[in-house]
Amino acid sequence: MKELVIISGKGGTGKTTLAASFAYLAENKVLADCDVDAADLHILVHPEVLHEETFRGGVKACIESSRCVACGLCRDACRFAAISQDFEVSHFLCEGCAVCFHVCPEDAVILEEPVNGRWFISETRFGPMVHAALLPGEENSGKLVALVRNQARVLATKQGRGLILVDGAPGVGCPVISSVTGADHVVIVTEPTLSGLHDMDRALELVRGFRIPASVIVNKADINPDVADSIEKRAGESGAKVLGRIPYDSAVIKAIVQCRCVAEESYGPASTAIRHVWDRLEADVL
Amino acid sequence: MRQNDDLRKEVEQALSEVIDPETGLSIMRMDLIHDVDVQSTGNVSLIFRPSSPVCPMAYALANSIKSKIGNLNGVNSVSIKVENFYRSEHLEELLNG
Q1: How far is A182 from chain B, CA to nearest CA, in Å?
Q2: Which of A10, A82, A208, A244 is 20 to 30 A from B48 (CA-CA)?
């Protein structure tokens, strides 16, 4: 079984758009949407939820007013300014470090495990998918990503599927690290802008740190061929294979507006390039 | 002596109570335990595959597995083989040595 993770470094480069097209083109796979902070692969693959569970990723402090003597020790110790003058804990400021719990002489602080999000096992137009969504303002997305990847693997093993196709998160932070660790291959989707180049560099550095083979796709490559050249050069210097360039194509936008992926909609320039890239990926990596 | 099947059920129950702190799921639901073998002599062996070769919780989870099963009545020994982990030999040595 192979696990292919698609990340981007910079957000908005077309990572999920490509992931959906790959989901259409790939056979015998399980999909995993690990962009749990802003999950949107479901918009293009139309899941029917078969199983749903809550996710609790950490603790939050709560002060019992009946026991609190308003000594202020908890407020002085809190490094996140999460405790108000009235000794109420702000749910969004509390980081769950539990310092208040330990310094309270009256045992007035309790630690609760609130629901941070939900995760799902679904059937989609392109096969089974494990996905999740954090609630607004919630944290610990790395833990939820680990859960989604694990359950995708469990499902793939159970159903005898040979590929796990993971739509990762943008950036290089905790959810991305959680998306790529132990994967077989990482595809970095970038765009020919300076921020696209810069963030691809950071993503490459990250996957090198975990010794995971990586390749690069330049999306909307013709909007700035000079930077596209620089991206390919930099990728080569970093030991990453360039899988290809995808041109800007308004058919992509038209497909997304209809909640579909471009690979199933047309044989225009972008769709054709995506198919070539997938063929290369299948031949070289999978 | 208790039936082998009873002890096996107890071993599986004990394993299902070991929770991965990252996902909040039991290690059985995460499919981290394979080839559980419970002998009538009370010797238990299993394979532990952490969710990632660089799983930071592998040592703690393996220790929990060993003590959970080891504390069951009727279990004489617990042998754990560790796979898919970059320090599997070191971990096995600590567990079984």
Answers
A1: 5
A2: A208
Q: Which of B22, B29, B53 sits opposite A146 (nearest CB)?
A: B22
DSSP 8-class letter at B56: T
Contact A153 B53 (CB under 8 A): no
Q: Give SS3 for A206.
A: helix
Rounded Cα distance, A175 and A117, in Å: 14
Q: Which residues are B38's β-sheet partners?
A: B44
User: How does pLDDT run across A217-230, given as a tens digit for each residue?
Assistant: 999 999 999 999 99
Instruction: State pTM to two decimals.
Output: 0.91
What's the ipTM? 0.87
Of A56, A143, A182, the CB nearest to B52: A182
The answer to whether A5 touches A186, Cβ cutoff 8 Å, is yes
Q: What 3-state class would DSSP assign to A4?
A: strand
**Measured between CB atoms, does A30 come within 8 Å of chain B?**
no
- Looking at the domain A59-112, which fold is it? Alpha-Beta Plaits (3.30.70)
| B34 Cβ under 8 Å from any chain A Cβ | no
